[in-house]
Design goal:
5-stranded antiparallel beta sheet; OB fold (Dihydrolipoamide Acetyltransferase, E2P); binds zinc ion; two-stranded antiparallel sheet; mainly beta; 1 helix
């Protein structure tokens, strides 16, 4: 078993757009935020100008508690970019507010990953002023 940790600064990082900037600004402050449609309640899978379900243009930014459970994962031993340290574990967390977060798991061994484990978000710097939300087992 191998301990999973955050990637060191120097990995490829996102370039915030005008639409996604509120997400990355909040991450830099240690807050996880998400959009929710004021019209139908849908949570789009990524920052958007319009609702993916009803087409409405009133998407509000909300603070997330940053907690949820592990829905799906994989462990990567052959990275897609040479700057990534292996192993790392991309995961899908079912966020308690009813949306999905695709991220990576840290703070446990790769052999201890279990479906449904309780997780919480923690932020780590990735370089270029970007802080990435990772998830770790909830204490
Ligand atoms: Zn909608």
């Amino acid at each position: 078993m191998t301990a999973l940790g955050p990637q060191p600064p120097g990995i490829p990082v996102p370039s915030p757009s005008p639409v996604s900037a509120p997400y990355w600004d909040a991450a830099r402050e240690g807050r996880l935020v998400y959009q929710k449609c004021a019209g139908c309640g849908h949570v789009p899978p990524r920052p958007s100008r319009r609702c993916w379900r009803c087409g409405g243009g009133e998407l509000k930014w909300l603070d997330s508690a940053g907690t949820g459970t592990l829905h799906s994962w994989t462990v990567v031993w052959r990275p897609q970019h040479p700057s990534f340290v292996t192993p790392y574990a991309p995961v899908v967390m079912a966020v308690d507010e009813g949306w999905w977060l695709v991220t990576a798991l840290v703070g446990c061994d790769d052999g201890d990953i279990r479906e449904g484990m309780a997780l919480e978000v923690q932020f780590h710097p990735a370089g270029g002023g970007i802080w990435l939300p990772y998830v770790a087992p909830r204490a």
